[in-house]
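Standup, Tuesday
Yesterday: got the pipeline producing structure tokens again.
Today: sanity-check two examples.
Blockers: none.

Example 1:
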Amino acid sequence: MVRLVLVLGDQLTRDVAALRAADRARDVVVMAEVMAEGTSVPHHPQKIALILAAMRKFAVALESEGWRVAYSRLDDPANSQTISGELLRRAAEFGAAEVLATKPGEWRVLRDLQELPLPVRVLEDDRFLCSEAKFFAWAEGRKQLRMEWFYREMRRKTGLMMEGDQPAGGQWNFDHDNRKAAKADLLRPRPRDFAPDAVVKEVLSLVEARFSHFGRLRPFRWATDRVGALAALREFVEERLPRFGEEQDAMLAGEAFLSHAVISPYLNIGLLGPMEVCLAVEAAWKAGRVPIAAAEGFIRQVIGWREYVRGIWALKGPAYLEGNALGHVRALPGVYWGGETGMACMEAAVGQTRDLGYAHHIQRLMVTGNFALLAGVHPAAVHEWYLSVYVDAFEWVEAPNTLGMSQFADGGVLGSKPYVSSGAYIDRMSDHCGGCRYRVKEKVGERACPFNLLYWHFLDRHRERFRGNPRMGQMYRVWDGMEAGHREAVLAGAEAVLARLDRGEVV
């Protein structure tokens, strides 16, 4: 009996579980470009184009290897425009009695598959290095799910940068050598732009005709097949990895990439695998081309943080998306959709996001995420924005990063304290503040940096929750030590900022 083998747009890997379980001579691979997936949130046009172009090329590659592929294009009049609808249509067409699927990275899609009036066998996505079962076993009985301890287990499991049972260099973490402040000499060769070929050009025209979401589609710079993704990986390792560690938290106006890898979209849709990426980095370190701090810092992000947040997503389940531990309810300000602002850092981060569908982790965490948290924006709105606007955003990785790390909506599952800061951090790590309408050194008044005002307002309104936190006690002592009139002025200034946000005025 024929089975349908579902391959989703972020599962473009030859050995993905559903393909491995299929019979090439009998089964039919189903791939579908559907409007429902492009509009479940208003995805960035470049993200939609990347996925559609990569899907089309992957389907052709499968056919060249002897697979029978039923491919539905977005503009096909017969397309039902939902994954479920396309599976039912293809089941009737081929007389299929079962669907093989690899577990999707969104709970919504998994629920839709489970509700199909067809038998569906969902296989674990074993492209990850830590299985769900192993992560659950690691998490069981722990009071705190600290990423550092998980990371050490993954180092031992993979053998990456290990000398026997000890970490290379005698320590697990080289953070103290990394994360230097922004300086003009940080500029490195810009990641290569991949010129659109005929397939990509066709997709770009289709996306322009069908979608009007936030974000610029052109110029489109992404690789859309495995050959291109491998080229992007090689270029990063050779040209930017040596400085990656020390520059990873820096921000410079007009410089989107610095020494970052910019390969997360390829990892997250399947064009690259996590182990091959880490092995390439480890090999460069072993050859003496890369400092140990840079190599370790990168590998930690992949086998540590990336695997960890995926485990949290699987462990906590769909209810995780509804977390709101701090009770925040404010609407997402218009600046996130390109509205006018006087804050240079927000303008830079959002503008880059609009133009590229990309911003590095500190721009996301300590600029746009920090501002949303300090302002008390509803975490579900922040989650939807991040899922919408970034090319590499998929729920399994985006939701824990946003709801847990960025917005503290999970109450501290991912971190023992919220990631909040005043403008001083942004001033230290970037060159934004010099050209800003606001003055980062001013603590009160109309020219005071909104981050300064909102930081203390956040601490004050959440005093009962955080005053006993050992990592935040010092800041409460600083706040309490301020003169009463100064504290009142700070809070009044913050309330004025929040009132402007609520009225839709420029901040």
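Example 2:
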Amino acid sequence: MKEKLKSIVLVLLVVSSLVESYYLMYRLPGSDTIIRSATNYIKTDYMGPETNVESLIYPDKMIIHMGEDKHTIFYPDSTFYNLIFSLIEGRSFDSFQRRSIQNIDLKEMRQNNPGIELTFGSGVPVTLLQRVMQIQPDSLFQTELIDRVWIYNVNNESKAHALFFSTEGVVYEAGKADLTVQDIQQQVDFGTTWTPYMTINGAYYVPETPIEMVESTVDMGVYTAEQMQRSLFFDSSITRNIREKDGSEIYTDSKRSLQVRQEQKWMSYTDPAAMPAGESNVDKEVLAAVDFVNQHGGWNGNYRLSLAGGGVGKNEVVFQQYYGNYPILERPQFQYGTIKLDLHQGTVSAYERSLIYIKLKEQNKQIKVLSGGEELKSKLKKLSEQSAIVDLYPAYLPARTEEGLHLTPVWAVKLRSGEVMVLD
């Protein structure tokens, strides 16, 4: 009898121990969060929606080549852009072979071969591009950054061709592309009724007629410095607040620092300790950057992965904000439109973004016409005398007003130097 009682007591002790362990590990809803290591960040109050990396990877433009040196351009989130990209996302590319760019007649392709050219700005790692396109794993170019995909037909050939251009100047052709000649021609035909574009030496494209954009003023909100402080510091109660002479505020816990420039509503966060030695992996840095923004500010608006590596030490990741179909330009006099991070082996050492976010409610809007044809070519010719032009695209110039955030349509001109200028 005594032994049986001991067994019952022992079972009760084991069960109570397991129950206690469960509560310690998982906590009941509404109870305090378990404190983790000091290198982790605690997610605090909701600031903006989260997203995944797949929704941030898409071409900055889609150039449609219709043969006979006729072209047009579709921009993100436009009807034909979405139709064409959804088709390409669903088709597979396999059996890659390396080709010499010297053996590819790009001028011939551009002028005479119907095709679709997708451009990805500064490039996307193949491993991330595989998340939005069915690119079969291939050790031949798995470590490359792809800045252009060109899918086209050749006269009198029964299969479509698909070329992947790397930022290192290497070209890879998919030996197997799950696209027919008819598929490509059908998508190309969408461009026949759209704004015609002419190419300037194959470097960039100019519309042959003026184009229309919507000029808008939208409601905006502002994150507070205290919100960012609570979000970024492990224990915000031990941070010190320093006010600078220029009106900016600095929060620090002796290790990390958060600077908020109140005039521009721009924040810069740095963590010098988060710089471990060792080689970085670009795709993992991008994934870590997305996770970090999800936890510390969120994504109020539409963004695109603009730069994957390429900053100091190739650790910078930049996300470009869009309004409608076009990007919002960040300017020195008003920093808005990008989220920037520096990462080292998956750990964020620097984080910059605007505290302003769009609420998407439009106060007013009107149509603005941007120049095209010979008038635009004349302006560009004068500008090209200073530096070679490598890209031209419509964009929005942001400005704060009493009514909200004003977005003015402009032509953005990217020079070979990397500088982006605004054309009136």
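Quick observation on example 2: Residues 212-216+360-423 form one domain. The chain has eight helices and 24 strands.
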